[in-house]
Every structure is written in C-alpha cells, then in structure tokens.
Amino acid sequence: MQNFTFHNPTRILFGAGQIGGLSREIPQGARVLLTYGGGSIKANGVYDQVRRALEGFDIIEFGGIEPNPLFETLMKGVELARREEVDFLLAVGGGSVLDGTKFMAAAIPWQGGNEWDIVHRRMPPKTALPLGAVLTLPATGSESNSYAVITRAATKEKMSFGSPLLFPRFSVLDPETTFSLPSRQVANGVVDAFAHVAEQYLTYPAGAPLQDRFAEGILRTLVEEGPRTLAEPRDYDARANVMWCATAALNGFIGAGVPQDWATHAIGHELTALHGLDHAQTLAIILPNLLWVQRVPKREKLLQFAERVWDIREGTEGSRIEKGIIATRAFFEAMGSPTHLSAYAVGEDRFGEIVERLQARRALPLGERRDITEEKVLEILALAR
Ligand code: NZQ
Ligand code: ZN
C-alpha cells in the first residue's frame, strides 16, 4: 500500500428532516450567501425548507449557477458577496452549485490578481470563506471533498482544482430532496459515482484489499440500488443508498494508498467543454472503451472486478475481462445513459481537437501508469463512435 494522509473534515448530516438542523451548523450572526442553480430547489420545496431553517440569519441569495458552472457567472456572485460582506456560503443543489460555491469561497478573499488563475494555474488559495452544503443530486462527491470543476465560457476550458480549505464544513444529505430528480439526472449520478470508483479501483493491485472491498461494495450497491431508484422514485432506502454510495465514492476513503487513473474524466471533460454533454454522459461513453483499450495493463484488477462485482467466474481470462466490460456497458445503458458518441452527434472529425487540447495543457500521457498516449486516446474515441 502507498503512503497516505487521510483527513476528511466534512460533517455529514444524513437523513430525512436534517435540513431542519441547519441553524446549528452555521455560526450565529453570520451573513450567509445562499447559492443555488436554475430553480429546481424552488419547485421541490427544498428552498422553503432551507429558508425556514435559517430564520433569523441575514441571507443574501445568488441563484442561476448553471450545470458545468461558468467562471463568468460565478464572478458575479463573487462581486455580490464582496459588496454584501458575506462571511458564510451555503450551497443548495447538485455538484455544479457546490463546485461553483467552492470557487467563490476561494475567489471572494483572493488577492492574487486574476481569479481564473485559481483554476487555470491551480494557484493555491491562502484563505477561503467557510462553506456548507445541502446536496440535492447524489453524483459528484463534491459534498465531502475539496475539489471543484469550473468552466470558462470564453475559452471553453473545463478544469478541476482543489484545496484543503474547500472541504464543506458540513453537508446535509436528505434522500427525500432527490425524489424530484428527472431520470436523466438519476442515471448521471449513478454513472458518475460508478466511474469515480472505477478511476480509483480499476488500476493495478497495490496490496490494499480493504480499499478494494470497499470499492467493490460501492459498485455492487450501485448496481442493485440504481435501477430501483429509476423504477420507484420515492423509494427512500434506494435513494439513501445511492446517496451514500456517491459520497463514499469520492470522499478520499477508497482512494487512500492506491494508484488512480482519472483518464476517463480528463477525456470526458473535453467532451463536455466542446460538445456540451452532461459530465456523466461522457463517462458512460469513455469508461467501457478505455477499460477495453487498457485491458492488458489493467488485467489483474479487471479479472477481480469481473468476479467480485459481476460474478463472472467461468471462461478464459480474456473472456472474463470482456464480459465484465460488457456488463458495465449494459448497466449504463440500462440506467438510460447511452454509451456511444453517435447518440450525441459528435463525429470523428472532432477527435483530433480533443487530443490537441489535452496536449496543449500537457495532460498526456494519462492514466495510473502514464501510458494513455495520444494514440490510445484516439483509439478510445474511435471505439466510442
Ligand atoms: O440547476 P437546478 O435547477 O438546481 O437543476 C439541476 C441541474 O439542471 C438539476 N437538479 C439538481 N438537483 C435536483 C435537480 N432537479 C430536480 N430535483 C433535484 N433534487 O440537475 C441538473 C444537473 O445538476 P448538476 O449540479 O450540474 O449535476 P451534478 O451533480 O452531476 O454535477 C455535475 C458537475 O460536477 C462536476 C462535473 O464536471 C459537473 O460540472 N464534478 C465535480 C466533481 C467534484 N467536485 O469532485 C467530480 C466529478 O467528477 C465532476 O467532474
Ligand atoms: Zn465525475
């Protein structure tokens, strides 16, 4: 096992009714900036619950954070927060609202010049405003990690950054807030969480059986509970299990001490930036093809995955690996997430641009062994047609 430092300071308040306890989590007398997205929280009653729970606090609102949050939008929130001298940020929504709020937390007190440098040049913030979250879409793990992914419209760049200062102080995870999710977002959440586990588990053996078994437990739970949430949107237990899986998939726990890949995400972010696909839609397309192209270097873990996640024990090594990948693709499709680029009208003529952009940012080669070269990215994209 590799050396690691594990520290996850986010306090999780899990379960129905937990929004009611918000006021205990925010310092008395704080001036709170309540951030949200395009209005789903007003339609499903979450906004009203939050406002009720925060009676007596000074609340300033910043709505309109879009999916794949834009630097340009967020800077308006930064200016508002500076003007209003807010000292606590409360993000209410999905990963985009949480990520956007993390950026704002770093940008509001930033004195290092252009705020885009925090993302683009990964200049570490020296200080950040405290933030909390009410999560309404289980997917990204942003509710319990220190990362954010921000897009700049002007340059079509979608980039991740992080800082230990950006862990939410607390996150409220009430599965009932997810009852109103459209099926496309349910699928997105399950696929994203599945891919987060895959990025940290489907690499090479690192003598870390506990991390492996946690990872396999998350994957098996997603495979069981994901379809239940689609079939029965108000099944509380299914919602709760998917929600907890998504947090566990990217709160640092299963990734401690093991090699990590993240090539599927790197390629996927370019597809979102250039062609507007949802984050998880890109993962459903890239992951099965990347696993196929990388089936030799990932051989041992793919065999373990086939056996322990999909119960595939018969046949040659090659056929077990192939069946595990086919089962993964079929699961994404069954959740309603297409696994081919043709579903989104992204043609072959656009593949070169994706590779050029990865090259320009010196991101290649990718993968846990840095062996996913330009040629392999093109091969993965060609298989994904
Ligand atoms: O904007 P509103 O009106 O709130 O609607 C949202 C949005 O349209 C809607 N929604 C959210 N909760 C809802 C709901 N609709 C009905 N009922 C609810 N309870 O869902 C739509 C998508 O929301 P979004 O926040 O964009 O989705 P998600 O949580 O999948 O976040 C995706 C973003 O997270 C980034 C992605 O790149 C993308 O920008 N990621 C962040 C990561 C992190 N911080 O660690 C890691 C991930 O790999 C990912 O890259
Ligand atoms: Zn993701």
Description:
With 385 residues, the chain is of the alpha/beta class. It has 2 domains: 11-177, Rossmann fold (3-Layer(aba) Sandwich), CATH 3.40.50; 183-383, Dehydroquinate synthase-like, alpha domain. 47% of the residues lie in helices and 11% in strands. It has helices at residues 22-25, 40-43, 46-53, 71-84, 95-107, 117-120, 183-201, 209-231, 236-249, 263-275, 279-293, 299-310, 317-334, 351-360, 374-383; strands at 11-14, 31-35, 58-62, 88-93, 131-135, 147-152, 157-162, 170-173. A 6-stranded parallel beta sheet has the order 1-8-5-4-2-3, covered by helices on one side. It has a two-stranded antiparallel ribbon with strand order 6-7. A hairpin with a 4-residue loop joins strand 6 (147-152) and strand 7 (157-162). Helix 7 packs antiparallel against helix 8 (209-231) and helix 8 (209-231) crosses helix 12. It is globular and about 65 Å long. The chain starts with 10 loop residues before the first strand and ends with a helix. The structure holds 5,6-dihydroxy-NADP and zinc ion. Zinc ion binds at residues 140, 192, 195-196, 265, 279. This is Alcohol dehydrogenase. Residues 187-382 form the Fe-containing alcohol dehydrogenase-like C-terminal domain. Residues 9-175 form the Alcohol dehydrogenase iron-type/glycerol dehydrogenase GldA domain.
